[in-house]
Amino acid sequence: MGYDIERFVGYVNEGLLCSICRDVLEDPLQAPCEHAFCTACIHGWLVHHSNCPEDRQMIDVSLLRPLYRYMKNDLNRLQLHCKNRGYGCEMVCSLESIDRHERECEYSQIPCSNAGCTVQIERRNLDGHLAVCEYRSRECPNGCGYTILSAEDTQHNCVTELRTELELLRSEMICRVEEAKHEMESRLDSQRRHMVQKESILQNEIEELKSQMSRMMSDVRSLMAAERQHRQELEQAELEKREL
């Protein structure tokens, strides 16, 4: 939807009005046939139609373009009243700067910042409202450190609140201890499984080394026996040589 034409000061050119809502263009787009529309208006129109609402020429979202620069400049120079005029704001400024003004306008209706409060208050009166808001919070004056709402002043009991806080802390501590316990047990189980696997691997390696050593000892014995046989043969050959 566009800007309400009643907010504007002076004459507004017909070409700066949306062809659908007939208000002053807001975030404008232009069709190839040069008719201009508010972005929200033309997008809503094209959901159910495929032509221009003015001359019925076929158009598509992809054919929409920004407003011509000279038209955009004319639009931005238009003067209009703040939307909070009904609350007392007398500001009149250009369309180009109206959004910035209205974001900061002292007459804007804004929600109370206290949780649970549904009051809408003028920005300029917010501080006064916060000072008396029944949902405002403050620290207990008796020193327990508990944050209380003004509406809870009469019901607040330091001992009860501290006991509740203590129970919550105890419950939280128990949960944390249980979580730490489960985590440690999980880690120990993981390490235990790892050690068992490592032990099995080492045991297999030991058995393999024993087997290799046994084969080596057998080979050494065979070599020693062959050496004795060879020595005996040499001694026999030496004897035969002497006899000859």
From TrEMBL:
One of its GO terms (biological process) is regulation of canonical NF-kappaB signal transduction. It comes from the Eukaryota. InterPro entries: Znf_RING (IPR001841), Znf_RING/FYVE/PHD (IPR013083), Znf_RING_CS (IPR017907), Znf_TRAF (IPR001293). The keyword Isomerase does not apply. Keywords: Coiled coil, Ligase, Metal-binding, Zinc, Zinc-finger. Residues 192-243 form a coiled coil. GO terms for molecular function: ligase activity; zinc ion binding. Residues 101-144 form the TRAF-type domain. A zinc finger (TRAF-type) spans 101-144. Residues 18-56 form the RING-type domain. This is RNF41 ligase. It comes from Podilymbus podiceps (Pied-billed grebe). The gene is Rnf41_0.
